[in-house]
From TrEMBL:
InterPro entries: His_Pase_superF_clade-1, His_PPase_superfam. This is Phosphoglycerate mutase.
Amino acid sequence: MQLILVRHPQPLIAPGVCYGRSDLAVAPEQLAQTLVALTATLPRGLPLYSSPLQRCATLATQLAAPLQSPAPLLDARIAEIDFGDWELRPWDDIPRADIDAWAADLVHYRPGGGESVLQMAGRIAAFHADLQRQQRDAIVICHAGAMRLLLACHAGLAPADMAMQAAQNPHQIAYGATLTLQS
């Protein structure tokens, strides 16, 4: 089974602002560039799974026809982490003590009262298990956090270990980038 993970295009948000579950649009020119690049490289006819957040869902919907794929299946389990009341706040405005508390417990702490990395890892593991049962290749349009957790899950890690690995390793996944997982 081959899973091709795709990160969404860059969303319309100022640098230095915390966002995860917030539903942000993408600049039309960014979307167009990403569509051209992905249409040229992704395989045809595979099912598309997408986070329901518009920065992913819009890309998935517009990829379906050129990739000769069925309409994308939107799955909330692959949405980005929920930062609670940190969402859409400048990182510099979040109290240092709160950020330090998160740094002290990257796996279990719920930033802004939202979702812990462990909670996110649980839903990502459930999504991955469903894909494994289907035993078919697929394209998954999602977020850097989801991609890092899917990579850890695909390596056979349990949710707590997935969360620890993802939380301890900063991502280097560019907007519109792909990552292929083989099993």
